[in-house]
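Example is below:
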Amino acid sequence: MNTTSQPIVDLAYVRFQVPDLASQETFLQDFGLHTWEVAGVLYARGTDPSAFIYSACEGEATFLGLGFEAESQAALERVAALDDITIQDHDAPGGGLVATFTAPDDYRVDLVWGMEKSPAMAIPSRSPLNDGAHRPRLGERVTFAAQPRDVKRLGHCVLGVTDFQTSYRWFNEHFGLIVSDEIFAGAQDNVIGAFMRCDRGAEYVDHHTLFLLGAGAPGFNHAAFEIANWDSLMAGHFALEQAGYTHSWGVGKHLLGSQVFDYWKDPHNFTLEHFTDGDLFNADFGSHKAPIDALLGSHWGPSGGPT
């Protein structure tokens, strides 16, 4: 199976505008991101080698858009030609080339290629996990590396859209995103949203890279960042709680995607999620349907969604 037939590799970054960069930077650092500022723009990265996964400039609190990583320059050129988009130099850490699209509901969507990678950082380690059937940790205590809540990478973004089918077709036609789980309300043909993943053929990818919900209006819901493991997530939870930030949802384990999740509000009321232990699927997993109760339910922990 060809693993590089589709135009994108993964979600690259999310962009925001916030009225106070200083408080935002403090939050991002407490959240587990590594930050720096260039020419009035705040950037952040995780321990994975992406040049950056988050940016914010100063202004009224606004979600500015997201970026995907193209699998090749040819893919970038092919997708740009769909909307007659001019490819430009990418004026951001890592450089490269970028084509900037306007998706339905006026969402800004970048497609980038050729961004230089940054050196990967060490991720928090954990001694083996004992459970009732397997006990690999023998003769040693549980130990943690320094900075136990470091974010690894950006995992997915969730957006409200005016019309789900219109937005789904656009993202599928431009970037090859495929459905993991369609969400229906009432009758199964009343599809109101979908978890969408990258199509990398036989290669395993996150259960979802983008979730679109037909909410009747556009709106940023949340962006999710992967944490190294369960202990890192819980360490982050208590550190953010002690720092006085607003908790939104969690800790729990999603029914769809299986992630252990923990949602927080940043100082400007945007929701950011820590997650770990998510499902990985390839193209053979296909597409499935689930009721809205499964979207908001949990294997354990609180149900109902972020507040």
Q: What stands out?
A: The chain has a mean pLDDT of 94. The radius of gyration is 19 Å.
